[in-house]
Write a structure and sequence with these properties.
- The protein is an alpha+beta fold.
- The protein has two domains: 3-32; 66-140, SpoA-like (Surface presentation of antigens (SPOA)), CATH 2.30.330.10.
- Helices cover 31% and strands 21% of the residues.
- It has helices at residues 3-29, 57-60, 80-84, 133-140; strands at 69-72, 102-106, 109-119, 122-130.
- Strands 1-2-3-4 form a four-stranded antiparallel β-sheet.
- It is elongated.
- The relative contact order is 0.08.
Length: 141
């Protein structure tokens, strides 16, 4: 394609966009009695960070209540007969596949998924996915 044809195509495209924008702006301001070029100044209130629950005095009351956090590796069902036959060195097959994320629960409610890590000779868990509060509420129903 020659340079002239490219310039013509770009100009045509620019004209189409300009026409579409004019139609859109004209349609928005038609019923409002204003011009598309007018701008009004609006005073905005100061933005506040509401993401931290610690600043809420209502929550201060419960922040020191201990909860039980557990990490679930997996589970299995076993008959009492087989349970009584377990001894040191017995191996139980769990419902999870190796490499699958572990469940992190608080008071029995799933709050996150994670993976096992070792830090200073202690086991830990790195959270890989935290369940949103909305999803936690939905799971309670």
């Amino acid at each position: 394609m020659s340079e002239d044809n490219k310039d013509v195509d770009q100009q045509a495209l620019a004209d189409e966009w300009a026409a579409a924008m004019e139609e859109q702006v004209g349609g928005e301001t038609e019923g409002q009695g204003g011009s598309a070029t007018e701008a009004k100044s609006v005073e905005l209130s100061e933005l506040q960070d509401e993401s931290s629950p610690v600043k809420d005095p209502k929550l201060d009351v419960i922040l020191d209540i201990p909860v039980k956090l557990t990490v679930e590796v997996g589970g299995t069902e076993i008959a009492i007969r087989n349970l009584l036959q377990l001894s040191q060195g017995s191996v139980l097959e769990l419902s999870r596949v190796a490499g699958e994320p572990l469940d992190v629960k608080v008071n029995g409610t799933l709050i996150a998924h994670g993976e096992v890590v070792v830090v200073n000779d202690h086991y830990g868990i790195r959270l890989t996915d935290v369940i949103s509060p909305q999803e936690r509420i939905w799971r309670l129903k």
